[in-house]
Design a protein that fits this description.
Radius of gyration: 18 Å
Helix content: 25-40%
Distance between the termini: 36 Å
Low-confidence stretches: 1-24, 27-32
Structural class: alpha/beta
Mean pLDDT: 91
């Protein structure tokens, strides 16, 4: 946490020194080209860009986060530099509402992006945004057949103890009930099988031991059937926690490895110099200050009593067989 405060101070100092600036634009080869026709909550470059790029990646933000806050300063410019086109999906209520409602939005985003690109796509998500596409490919075959890879950054597949703490008094946000350790939604997420077969999507779960939101690690981000990679097992001195993973060069190297090989990420394929890097390639450290808005929204949203309910909502009928 000392490192988080230090980096936050550095980013704030940079913003103060240079004055307020607008959030960075989503970088990509389609800048200046008409955007593809898509729902208001889905932002994609032109269909020409989607069809000609090395690959297409749908980016899913986490709880309390808007797409530009999570991706504009790190993954969007990095993926563009590596030849990938990116779309982003905005979650309903910025991901502060029901997990299953957000999963329905992600399912629709997967199908819409694949339709625009006219090919299978990959999905990269952070925090809750890493679990949502896994729910989508597990429970909706129509979405699974459109996806090549799902790559989760700090996804709460085993639930998070933070949810249990928020619900200690018997009232908390719907999302906290759904993603606490022991929740029926978490049980369904864990126990429903991943798709199988030659064209089934590969799943990679990337996590860090210092995650203060999705915990305890590594159990909180472990998903049966996925390639589960702990950053500190790859680079022992990697400092990333829940937010810093978005700018982590090791996490990005694993992501690119998954995107450019058949199957999930394999740490054994990473270059020996990966652990020497300090920030995501082509990332903008000063621009990362916009993620502080996500942190604030996450905190105030989950602590808002108007969102609190008395119990975990029922698991949807389609997922109920795996919820116990």
């Amino acid at each position: 946490m000392r490192l988080v405060r230090a980096l936050t101070s550095l980013v704030v100092a940079a913003v103060v020194a240079h004055g307020p600036v607008a959030p960075p634009a989503m970088a990509g080869p389609a800048q200046g080209i008409a955007r593809a026709a898509a729902p208001a909550w889905l932002d994609c470059p032109s269909q020409e860009t989607l069809r000609s790029a090395r690959g297409v990646v749908l980016l899913v933000p986490g709880t309390g986060s808007k797409p530009e806050e999570a991706w504009s300063w790190g993954y969007a410019p990095a993926l563009a530099a590596d030849g990938f086109a990116t779309c982003t999906v905005a979650l309903p209520d910025d991901g502060l509402g029901s997990f299953t409602t957000a999963a329905t939005r992600v399912r629709r985003a997967i199908k819409a992006t694949a339709r625009l690109a006219e090919r299978r796509i990959s999905v990269v998500g952070h925090s809750q945004g890493g679990a949502l596409p896994v729910w989508a490919v597990k429970f909706w075959p129509g979405a699974a057949e459109k996806v090549k890879d799902v790559i989760s950054l700090a996804g709460p597949f085993g639930g998070t103890q933070l949810g249990n703490e928020l619900c200690t008094a018997g009232r908390c946000a719907t999302l906290a009930w759904q993603l606490r350790v022991g929740a029926q939604h978490v049980s369904a997420l864990q126990h429903a099988p991943l798709p199988t077969g030659r064209r089934a999507p590969s799943v990679t779960s990337i996590a860090g031991l210092y995650d203060e939101i999705v915990r305890p690690q590594p159990a909180a981000s472990r998903l049966d059937g996925a390639a589960n990679v702990v950053l500190q097992d790859v680079c022992a001195h990697d400092p990333s926690e829940h937010g810093l993973i978005l700018g982590d060069p090791v996490g990005y190297a694993l992501t690119i490895d998954a995107l450019t090989h058949r199957g999930p990420a394999d740490p054994g394929r990473l270059p020996a110099t990966t652990c020497e890097q300090t920030f995501i390639p082509h990332g903008d450290l000063a621009g990362s200050y916009v993620f502080l808005e996500s942190v604030t929204r996450f905190t105030t949203g989950l602590l808002d009593p108007s969102r609190w309910v008395d119990a975990e909502p029922p698991v949807p009928a389609y997922a109920r067989p795996w919820a116990d």
